[in-house]
Every structure is written in C-alpha cells, then in structure tokens.
C-alpha cells in the first residue's frame, strides 16, 4: 500500500486546511477596515474622497483578511507536518514585516508526515519502509529496488518487467519478503 501523502495537493485542498476561526477573524478584519474607512475616517476634517475611501477600505480589508487566513494556515499546516503550531504561529504573528514570518515558515517547513498503514506510526513521505515495523510503504522494482508506481509495467531505472506484482502491505524481514 502506498502512502497517500506523496501526491501533490491542489490549491483547493490547501484552502481546506485553514481553520474556521481564521475565516471568522478574516471576516472581522475585512469588516473592521470597512468601518474604519466609512465611519471613522469621514469624521476627519479633511477626509479623502469617497472613491478613495472605498478603494482603501477594500484593499486594506483584503490585505488584513488574507494575512489572518495565512496565519491560520500556518497554524494548522505546522501541526500536520509534525512541527510546533504554537511556535510557527507566534513567528508568523510577531514578524509581520511584509509577511516575513509566513515566508520563513513556507521556506523552512518539513514535508507532510504520513501514517504507516500497518502500525499507524508517523512516517515521512518518500520512505520505502516504516522505521518502526518494517512495513513496505511503496512498490519497488524486484531487480534494482528503485521505487516504481503501482501502474508501471516496466522499471524506469533498469527496464525490468514488473508484471502483476502484489503491492499490498507486507512486512520485510531480513531482506526477504514475508
């Protein structure tokens, strides 16, 4: 059985990672920017024109809302990658200059941690065997032992015929398959 965390994720899948509290705070930030631009700023003795307040309100609200959504994403994504969500959320909040804290997280984040189908221990993507129970996590060529996809007919590395092999979860003990 192959780990499902090895596949690339789509933007829609990543958006689903953002928690509900972040969506709520983003909405509050957007509405707060509108309130500021349409209620507080017009009380100034020399306010900007209406079109300027509308434009600034929309831009500021969208910017604050996206920033809050990114902080929520960092919080939830750090947890699913086996990193400290509290630490990375604090970094994202405390280093707001041009989103530097969020950029640091995106550059330094770990790969997504999968789960072994046999013993349910955390396993990094790209592992061929579980380090805890030695369960085979991905199919490999019987001749050269390079990883192959389950639907491959030939090994891309050595050209060996793969045929119909059983790629189900198996334990490997002392170099032979059980």
Radius of gyration: 25 Å
- The helical percent reads 40-55%
β-strand percent reads: 5-15%
The SSE string, one letter per element, is: HHHHHEEEE
Order of strands in the sheet with most strands: 1-2
Regions with little confidence, pLDDT below 50 for 5+ residues: 1-6, 167-178
Gap between N and C termini: 15 Å
* Number of helices, counting only DSSP H or I runs of 4 residues or more: 5
Number of E strands: 4
**Largest sheet properties:** 2 strands, antiparallel
Give the averaged pLDDT, no decimals: 83
Structural class: mainly alpha
Overall shape: it is elongated
Question: What are the main properties of this structure?
Answer:
two-stranded antiparallel ribbon, disordered C terminus, 4 strands, 178 residues, mainly alpha, 5 helices, elongated
Quick recap of the structure?
The chain has 178 residues and is mainly α. The protein has helices at residues 11-15, 20-40, 50-80, 85-94, 100-108, and strands at residues 113-115, 122-124, 172-173, 176-177.
Detailed description of the structure:
It is a single chain. The chain is mostly helical. Helix content is 43%, strand content 6%. The chain has a domain at 4-111. It contains five helices and four strands, in the order H-H-H-H-H-E-E-E-E. The strands form two sheets. The protein has a two-stranded antiparallel sheet. It has a two-stranded antiparallel sheet with strand order 3-4. Strand 1 and strand 2 form a beta hairpin. Helix 2 runs antiparallel to helix 3, helix 3 (50-80) runs antiparallel to helix 4 and helix 4 runs antiparallel to helix 5. It starts with 10 loop residues before the first helix and ends with a strand. Mean pLDDT is 83; it is low at 1-6 and 167-178.
